[in-house]
Structures are given as C-alpha cells and as structure tokens.
Specification:
Two copies of one chain form a homodimer. The first copy, chain A, is α/β, with parallel strands linked by helices. The first copy, chain A, folds into two domains: 185 residues, Alpha-Beta Barrel (TIM Barrel), CATH 3.20.20.10; 115 residues, D-serine dehydratase-like domain (Lyase, Ornithine Decarboxylase, Chain A, domain 1, Beta Barrel), CATH 2.40.37. Helix content of chain A is 29%, strand content 24%. Chain A contains ten helices and 17 strands. In chain A, the strands form two sheets. In chain A, strands 1, 10, 11, 12, 13, 14, 15, 16 and 17 form a nine-stranded mixed β-sheet that branches. In chain A, helix 3 packs parallel to helix 4, helix 4 packs across helix 5 and helix 6 packs across helix 7. Chain A starts with 5 loop residues before the first strand and ends in an 8-residue tail after the last strand. The model of chain A has no long low-confidence stretch (mean pLDDT 97). Chains A and B meet through helix 5, strand 10 and helix 9 of A and helix 4, helix 5, strand 10 and helix 9 of B.
Amino acid sequence: MLDTPCLVIDLPVVDENIARFQNLADTAGLKTRPHIKTHKLPFFAKRQIEAGAIGITCQKIGEAEVMVEGGLRDILLTYNVIGDAKLDRLAALARKCTLSVTCDNLTVAKGLSARFADEENELTVLVECDTGAGRCGVQSPTDAAELASRINELPGLRFGGLMTYPPMDHAENVDKWLSDAKQRLEDAGLPCPVVSTGGTPNLDALPAFNHATEHRAGTYIYNDRSLIARGACGVENCAAVVKTTVVSRPTKTRAIIDAGSKALSSDLLGLEGFGMVREAPDASIVGLSEEHGIIELGDSDWDPAVGDVISIIPNHICVVTNLFPTVWIKDQNGEMMEMPVAARGMLR
Amino acid sequence: MLDTPCLVIDLPVVDENIARFQNLADTAGLKTRPHIKTHKLPFFAKRQIEAGAIGITCQKIGEAEVMVEGGLRDILLTYNVIGDAKLDRLAALARKCTLSVTCDNLTVAKGLSARFADEENELTVLVECDTGAGRCGVQSPTDAAELASRINELPGLRFGGLMTYPPMDHAENVDKWLSDAKQRLEDAGLPCPVVSTGGTPNLDALPAFNHATEHRAGTYIYNDRSLIARGACGVENCAAVVKTTVVSRPTKTRAIIDAGSKALSSDLLGLEGFGMVREAPDASIVGLSEEHGIIELGDSDWDPAVGDVISIIPNHICVVTNLFPTVWIKDQNGEMMEMPVAARGMLR
C-alpha cells in the first residue's frame, strides 16, 4: 500500500505512448527528439532513444546535465542561454555530448560566441522562430535568415537550423513560415540541416509539417487531462495518476483529498477543475489549497469514505512531475519500483 | 551576481513582519503559532519563536520532522492523519516534541487512537471546525462538541481544543461559532484550553476573535502580491522576490523572462497576471509556460534589454518557496547567504 499523495506511472502505457509517437513521426518522415520535461528521468529518455529517437530535448542546463550523467548523448537545449555561470556549464556539457542550443536574438548569440570562441568544437545554434505561439522567437522568416547569418559569422558558433513551437491547429501556416525561412536561408547560401517542430497537441498534424526534419514532443509519454480534453488521447492512454487519500467528508456532497496544489499544481490549461477523478469522472475538483483538494460530488452516485485511496489524472502532468521527489513505476506484472525524479526542480 | 531564476529573501523585512504579527497578537491578547509552510525553514521558525511565538504549525508530517530536526519543540499539525505509515511517523514525532494534531471525523480519531493507545503519553487532538471556509472541518458547534467527546473517550487521545481556518471578512460570525462550540463543550464538561484561528488575511481581524487563544499565520512573514491586492500589506512589506533574467524581446511590447510556472507557479488567487514586476508595476505577466514568463509591456515606458535582471513579487509566495531548492537570504548589510529550503516538497 503506497503512502499518499504519490505519483504512479503505468509502464506498459508509457511504452505504448512512446511507440505511437515514433510511428506517427516515422509515417510522416520526421525524426523524433522527445522533450524530457514531462518525465525528467534518464530511465525514460533512454527508452525513447531505444524506440528510435535521435536525441532528446531539454530546456534547462540542469536537466541536460542530469541526462548526460544518465547516459544520454544527443541533446537540443531549447533556451536562450545567458550569463557566465550558465555559459560555463554549457561549455562543459558540450565537451561531453552532441549539443545544440537555440537562440532568438543577437545578444544571446554574442554571449554564446564569446564563451565558445576558444573551445575546440563550434557550438551548433538553431534559430528559434515565433510561428504564432507568441512566446520566444524571431518574428519573420526574414529575421530568421538575418540572425542565422549573424550566428554563422560569429566565432565559435555554427548555424544549425530552425526551431519552433507551433501553435495548435495552424500546421499549414507554420509550414509556410518555415518554407519561407528555408528559402531565404538558401538564398543566403546557408545550409539548414534541421527544422525542429514540437508539441504533443500537434502530433496529428505531423504530416502537414513538410519542411520539418524532426519533432519534439514531451507530454505524449504520460498524457494528461488537458490532452484528453483536446481529443489527443483517451483516459486509457494516460500513464500517470496521482494517488490520493480521502481525508475528510465534511458534507454529503464534499470530499477532501490529501492532494492539493503542491501535488496537482494550479495549472488549469483552460479547463474547469483541477484534475479528473478516475473513479468518478463527473465529480469536480473545484478547489485546491496547498495540501488539500476539494471535490464536489454533485449528482454523482459516488460516495467515497474517509481513508479511500483514489486516482487523479492531472490537468498538466509536466508540472506535476516537478512536484514529486519520486515516482512509482508499475510494470506489466504490477510490480512497483520507486525512482527519484532526477531532473526535478532544475530551474537553471 | 546571482544566477537566475532564484528566490531572494530580505531579512530586515522578514524581521519587521515577524514583529508586526507578534505585536498585533499581543495587543489582541492572542498567542502566536506561525505556519511554517511559507518559509519551510527551521532558521525562520526559530526566529518566530524568539520573537514570542509559543510554537509552530505544520501541515505535513515531513515538515514537522524537518522542524524537530532543526530544533523546534512545540508543533501543531493541522491535518487529518491517516494510514499506518503516517501514524508510525507521528508516534515517533510525538516522542520528540510537544505535538498536537487536528481531526474532523471519527475515522481519523479511531486511527489515531489505535496507534497511540499503547504510547506512554496521550496525543492531544484538536477538533477542526468549518466556520465558513468550506474546506475540512465539522459543520456545526454541536458536531464539534460531539466529536470532542468521542475523542476524549478514545484510548491514547486527549481532546485539546478547537481549530479553524476562518474565511476572510467574517470574524464576528466565526467568533460566534467558536463561542457556541465552547459553550457546548462546557455543558459537556470538556475543558477547551486552545482555540486556534488562522490566516494572514485575518490579521486585522484579530481583536474580533474574542474566543480564540492563539492565531496561526504563515504568509505574513514574506507577504506577496495577493496580500498587497487585499490591502494586507504594501510592496515594501514583501520580503521575497524572484530574480529573473529577460531572455528575449521578440517584439516592442513583449519581454520573455526565465521564470515560468516552475518558478512562479500558476496560482492566480483571483488576480490577473502571474506576479508583479517591481521595476514596472504596470507591466503584465500575461502568461507562463514552464520555463518562460511572458510580459506585455503595454503603455509602460519600461524597455528592458535582453540580459537585464528584474524582480518579481509572486502572487502566492508559499507555493513559490516549494519550487526553489534553495533561497538566498540578504541581510541588513546586503550580504547574501544561500540556504536549502529544508521542508520543501514534503508531500507526506
């Protein structure tokens, strides 16, 4: 009997999810480069590589350090790296693995160059493109080609391609953007060996990314309630649940669980409620304090008792794995193995 | 130069905040029992004791274990403790400090009794009361007296008083509720040595808690944007900021920082935006992905450059301290000391 709250991962479901992404990408003629932010475990990163991935994606240097330590050897770090402390760690990493990074502005490129000019090997730098998601990224194909050209001129750096996190449901626009940028790079005589797209919500759109060479996805390995809501998976494809105990039944219609925002996070991702109760999908997790979740039972026949252990599919699993020091991995025989979440809490 | 994102605590402001709570409680004739969930550090818990607190409040056994290890000796654990694993740890804790717990139902009370019946000392159990906050707690003064009576009859347990987390702006109703419950306890011949209220948002209401004996508050030690919004403090009373670097300026009106939901959390607490930029309070942190914050500058004259380090006052500081492995404490001379957040991530 596991003590609660705890995070339990269904290994057979993980393996199915890994195979599904790889198959979708294979069919679309894309390589895969899974984002490790969802699991934060070398154990699963290696499984993704064994299934056919060409490498992994990390967003923090601390994550990449853990992955290299765990035996991974090809890493794309999708982040603007700034400052001496991080640049020194980046240079040390680059000596230990095949490393590429992204960049969307000249200040960052110059910082990378200053640090890598005297390194034995050039650092491969991809240009991050804002194809509509409104996060980081250069704003136009012209800007992408301009920055690529500047990167290529800077000592210690080699332009390596384009990277974008495409907005959902705009695959054709994104592909047009990338096509335009590639044309401008070609006009400038710059080879563009990699065009990296991303996102689990975009998995069904892979065939539309004609100009991409690889796809980064993270959440698909576990899936979550937000992906169920988007039609990207079913309940049966969710590999991760938070096990939690009913600690109070203050009223006939209210149950309190020992999973609050410290276990489920406050991420709503546009949904109502803070997770799905597997035992009663119609019940609503209407509120979270740090250590308690408040479930309104509504018209549900479900009548949990104090002490009952239930399973919650979180809204957003990636932030949940960041909250648990360990996960329990359940294999096909029901055997449980506890594993520290090695790259948890890597903020830098 | 600190690497970002990081959490920096201003020690003189902390000391002012500790003194203020103690003074407010002294004036109202209440003892203080600070909740350590905000700082999660024995270092600050001891400072609260030195300032006059009679003990501390924890919500998880893991937090209490860290505090006992750190030298704290009087702990109220405001949680329904369930299950053998936790009960064994609770019994071990009770041998090392003055421990009391709360409970709002008979199932929990019976579990506590079964474990403590053979211990040398009885466990003190307070009845948690739902005085309107809609979380845990018995629903009426009659139910409180009934559960208190049952607790007192159970082997190994001693009824110790009443505990509630009062809703904001209802101090008089709460005091009436507690007064009624105390009367029923008196009618039943049950002494009620402790009546514990809580909440930083209720600090101005302390004089209205005539039937309370002690108050638990946590957030007051650091304060945050939610408390500024409620008028409970000013910007100058906020002791904790997240230092973050501007990593991208994709457009004239958008800046991207290296603090996302893994640093600031997604807690909104009813506010718009995910924190206050100290350098530009009119700028809006409109979105967070896990590793990036998106700031819309709007009409602000503020024009941060890539590489600039800025300070964010989080919406909800308690969940933020749970996300950072260490904090930097800045003393009155500007000297910085890095300290592990010892009771971080204690989910059980």
